[in-house]
Amino acid sequence: MNEVTKPFDQHLSDENDQRSRDVVKAYMQSAWGVKGYDFLIYEVDLIIKRGHSWVAFVEVEVRYWSSELCPYPTIHVAKRKEKLLHQKLPVVFFAVTQSLRYAYWCKAVDVLSSPVVEIKNKYVASNEYFYDVPINKFKLVNLRGLK
Fold first, then answer.
1. What is d(CA 73, CA 61) in angstroms, rounded to the nearest whole number?
2. CA gyration radius for the chain?
3. Other beta carbons within 10 Å of 42
4. How far apart are CA 106 and CA 2, in angstroms?
5. Whole-angstrom Cα distance, residue 140 to residue 69?
6. How far apart are CA 28 and CA 56, in angstroms?
7. What is the mean pLDDT of residues 50-55?
8. Closest listed residue to residue 60, CA positions, set 144, 143, 123, 128
């Protein structure tokens, strides 16, 4: 079985990456008292600093669900992101809603310990795999007023 992954889409990246990173950085500074910085292109999205120490990484994705909040019992995280979830520091994963009003976040260890399932989707018809992370592993946060 050959695993297939969604090809990189520059348009989607241009439309979503910076705006979602910025709202997550603002949230983390306000709620957690940490400072986020954009990391390397094609690597994990953010590196987090508390005081003078680097303490974590953050991977951020925008979700286009049919409703404002996640309508599913699980959130899918592409298996192709696995390498981004293994870092020298802890990693947090954020799924930000399209409106940038809400986000779901969890620790990478919760993603990596979830079952892997094949999900057919609009980008890849078959053989693309995702971590099937139960929604109860995520914390829902309201990002309103932080943009």
1. 18
2. 15
3. 7
4. 29
5. 9
6. 12
7. 95
8. 143
